[in-house]
Amino acid sequence: MTVLVTRDVPDRYRGFLASVMPEVAPGVYVSPELSRAVRERVWTVLSDWWGTMPGGSVVMSWKDKTTTSGLGLEVLGLPPVSLVDLDGLLVVRRDSRQASAVPD
User: Fold this and answer.
1) Rg for the chain (alpha carbons), in Å?
2) Which of 50, 47, 13, 48 is nearest to 28 (CA)?
3) Does residue 98 register a pLDDT over 70?
4) Fewer CB within 10 Å, N or C, the chain?
């Protein structure tokens, strides 16, 4: 199962994703049997677009038997995060320096 969630992205992203996966809720796309090749191509397109028109965020998750946690995860957008394998558990680490740089 592949799940892709978008937030505050240009309509171009939504149109492209809707051509590949059904949109089950606003900004939430799912596919029970999306092949690895198609998933990687979708992510490549989204990443390329992100380089020219960043904004909002995109998160993609899928079942990945090659990871200890069994979950594959890709993220575009803010806040910037990194994924860390912590004793077999996939956790998200946020850069606290950037979080403190946001004005109150």
Assistant:
1) 15
2) 13
3) no
4) C
